[in-house]
Design brief:
It is a single chain. The chain has 69 residues and is mostly beta strands. It is built from no helices and 4 strands. A two-stranded antiparallel ribbon has the order 1-2. A hairpin with a 6-residue loop joins strand 3 and strand 4.
């Protein structure tokens, strides 16, 4: 669980699980009235990284080159 606190007075505003915040959120602190803007740390992506030539670290199979004589 992550604790989200006010940037000015450090009052606890909410608790959230990892990757629970998907889009931008604005929370007004009830103690000092500061508007706190929250964004996700990193966007969640379903895309897989592309392997560079010669690397198989992501588990993909790269095509074999035909040998020249």
């Amino acid at each position: 669980m992550n604790e989200i606190r006010c940037g000015s007075c450090r009052k606890l505003l909410m608790k959230s699980a990892d990757r629970a915040i998907v889009g931008p959120v604005e929370i007004k602190c009830t103690r000092c009235g500061t508007l706190n803007n929250l964004r996700p740390i990193e966007p969640f992506s379903d895309r897989h990284e592309r392997c560079t030539q010669g690397e198989n670290s992501c588990g993909c199979i790269s095509p074999k080159r035909a040998s020249t004589a």
